[in-house]
Specification:
This protein is α+β, with helices and mostly antiparallel strands and 448 residues long. Among the domains are: 148 residues, no CATH class; 137 residues, 2-Layer Sandwich (Heat Shock Protein 90). Helix content is 58%, strand content 8%. The chain has a five-stranded mixed sheet, covered by helices on one side. β2 and β3 form a beta hairpin. The longest helix has 72 residues. It starts with a helix and ends in a 9-residue tail after the last strand. Keywords: ATP-binding, Kinase, Membrane, Nucleotide-binding, Phosphoprotein, Transferase, Transmembrane, Transmembrane helix, Two-component regulatory system. It catalyses: ATP + protein L-histidine = ADP + protein N-phospho-L-histidine. Its EC number is 2.7.13.3.
Length: 448
């Protein structure tokens, strides 16, 4: 009962909003689209509609003056309002409906009673012939443009007004069914066409979204295929390197401890690189959720690398260890108070240090390397400096990678992604230096 009472109280306000406002969302048109519901062939419709309105203007004026005894000016004014509403309904159906309804009510109120029986033809209510056709056209366009609730409200009011006007206009024989069925039929057809158009528009939109999603899925599948190919090729070669490094000591008589250590370091680096590759590419070769990868170090099974945590600066010693094992002198220093940083910052700092060390190994043979990590209030600074090489590099000097190779490009992209700064360039002694600053401001939890 309370729900019904609340609904009855809210009904007048809702009816007022529906009948006096017609926002664009009610018309089913996108923002900025033309208000006309007929698209490109609207101009072709306006010409015959204007001609028809002019003809109906003359007919209505004659009917109102001859049959309903209206004065010539009043008959011309009311007929003009109805004729203009006939055309205006294409653009403003709600305003046209108001004009048509008020004009029809004015016709009934202005009719002169008491003329001889037989003057009005049988079955001539005020909605008959011209007025009924005009109102039905306006209701059809209104139902085509506005929400079904508004269409139901307007057709109900139109039927009530028609019946009241038909009873008010003197005449021997009125047909109330005609004043009900024709407007209701016109409104129903308009609402059905509107629903069909909106369903078709929704279907077209869904089809377009499906096509976009299909294209996107194709791109992702192609990228996955390329990544899988890359994984297979690189994983194969890294596995071969690991096996060869494991077998090599057995092919030499009395191998030295230095040789064994170097070969073990090669094998360890190959296995770590393979695990890192599987982590980055998502172990694309493995399609079995329950299939754990094989451990190339000593057989058996190990944890899926896809589920291993991403490396951070806390694992910097693990990154420097193989470089030292390769015979390089590496000095690592940490300044400031180490603190937790966002995972992305720690990962990017680790990758930048990793790439800088790789560049130093490739382009500066025998050079001494210094790795500095500084924790500052505004972020983290990572600096990798190598001295001048003690022998020529295989391809070029220590600055061979300064011209913008893929490694340096990757460092720049990572730094820019976090809004940091990257500086690279030669040192006065003939070496090379890479300095990256990644913002990671102190938080209240980090402050002692």
């Amino acid at each position: 009962m309370r729900t019904i009472t609340a609904g009855l109280r809210a009904a007048p306000a809702a009816l007022f909003r529906d009948l006096f406002t017609a926002p664009d969302e009610m018309s089913g048109q996108p923002p900025g689209a033309p208000r006309a519901p007929f698209g490109e062939w609207l101009p072709a419709l306006l010409v015959p509609l204007t001609v028809l309105a002019a003809v109906l203007l003359a007919v209505s004026t004659d009917d109102y003056t001859q049959l309903l005894r209206l004065s010539q000016p009043v008959a011309l004014l009311l007929a003009t309002v109805q004729a203009v509403a006939l055309v205006a309904a294409v653009f403003r159906p709600l305003a046209a409906w108001w004009a048509m309804t008020l004009a029809t009510a004015a016709v009934a109120l202005s009719a002169t009673p008491g003329f001889p029986v037989g003057t009005v033809p049988p079955g001539f209510p005020v909605w008959a012939d011209v007025a009924l056709a005009q109102m039905s056209w306006v209701l059809f366009l209104l139902a085509l443009r506005l929400r079904p609730r508004i269409a139901a409200e307007t057709v109900t009011i139109s039927v009530v007004v028609g019946l009241v006007c038909a009873a008010a206009v003197p005449g021997p024989d009125h047909h109330p069914a005609l004043s009900v069925l024709v407007p209701v039929a016109a409104t129903t057809i308009g609402a059905a066409l509107r629903g069909r158009g909106r369903a078709r528009a929704a279907l077209d939109e869904q089809t377009e979204l499906t096509a976009v999603e299909r294209d996107r899925r194709a791109v992702l599948e192609e990228r996955t295929r390329i990544a899988r190919e890359l994984h297979d090729v690189v994983a194969h070669h890294m596995s071969v390197i690991s096996i060869q490094a494991q077998v090599a000591p057995h092919l030499v008589e009395n191998p030295s401890e230095e040789l064994k250590e170097n070969l073990a370091g090669i094998r360890t680096s190959a296995v770590d690189a393979l695990a890192e590759l599987r982590r980055v590419l998502g172990a694309l070769r493995s399609g079995d959720e329950g299939h754990a990868p094989h451990d190339a170090r000593g057989g058996g099974r190990r944890e899926d690398p896809r589920h291993a945590p991403q490396p951070t600066l806390e694992r910097l010693d693990e990154l420097i260890g193989p470089v030292r094992a390769a015979g390089r002198t590496v000095t690592a220093t940490v300044t400031g108070e180490p603190r937790p940083v966002p995972p992305g910052v720690g990962l990017f700092a680790y990758r930048i240090a990793q790439e800088a060390l790789s560049n130093a190994l490739r382009h500066a043979p025998g050079a001494r390397i210094r790795v500095e990590t500084a924790y500052r209030p505004a972020g983290i600074m990572v600096r990798v400096t190598n001295s001048a090489p003690d022998r020529p590099a295989p391809a070029a000097g220590p600055t061979a990678f300064a011209s913008g190779g893929h490694g340096l490009l990757g460092m720049r992209e990572r730094t820019a992604l976090l809004g940091g700064e990257l500086a690279t360039g030669p040192t006065p002694g003939g070496g090379y230096e890479v300095t990256a600053f990644l913002p990671a401001p102190l938080t209240p939890e980090d402050t002692p």
